[in-house]
Amino acid sequence: MTKPLGNEDLSAKPGERVIDKPDLPPGGITNENDVHTEVVAGEMHLKRGTAGKFEVYSDEHQRIGGADRYPSPMTYLAMAIGF
């Protein structure tokens, strides 16, 4: 079996996608994303996530002990499905 295509093999040309080609590579395609998450110390349910240059925060509703300052993890999950 051939090695799957990774991020380094994909085109940097805007709009060009490997999935639009007639034949996909026999080994498939991988997508690597490094994501780091952590609980913010002393802040109950506050969490911070980073992915590359992006940073997001997540909290829980007050009724379950959070401060309700940021979307809940389930809200982010629902948004991700929509994207």
Description:
With 83 residues, the chain is an alpha+beta fold. The chain has two domains: 1-31, no CATH class; 33-83, no CATH class. It is 12% helix and 17% strand. It is built from one helix and three strands. It has one helix at residues 73-82; strands at 36-39, 47-51, 54-58. A three-stranded antiparallel β-sheet has the order 1-2-3, with no helix packed on it. Strand 2 (47-51) and strand 3 form a beta hairpin. The longest helix is centred in the last third of the chain and has 10 residues, at 73-82. The chain is elongated and about 50 Å long. The two termini are 32 Å apart. The mean pLDDT is 87.
Can you lay out the helices and strands and say which pair or pack?
Blueprint: E1 36-39, E2 47-51, E3 54-58, H1 73-82
Antiparallel strand pairs: 1-2, 2-3
What's the shape? elongated
- Tally of separate domains: 2
Strand content: 15-25%
The biggest sheet amounts to: 3 strands, antiparallel
* Cα distance spanning the termini: 32 Å
Name the helicity range: 10-25%
**Tally of alpha and pi helices:** 1
In round numbers, the mean pLDDT is 87
Structural class: alpha+beta
User: Numbering strands along the chain, what is their spatial order in the largest sheet?
Assistant: 1-2-3
The ordered H/E elements are EEEH
Low-pLDDT residue intervals, each spanning 5 or more residues: none
Strand tally, please? 3
Q: Radius of gyration from the CA trace?
A: 18 Å
Features of the shown structure:
83 residues; alpha+beta; 2 domains; 3-stranded antiparallel beta sheet; elongated
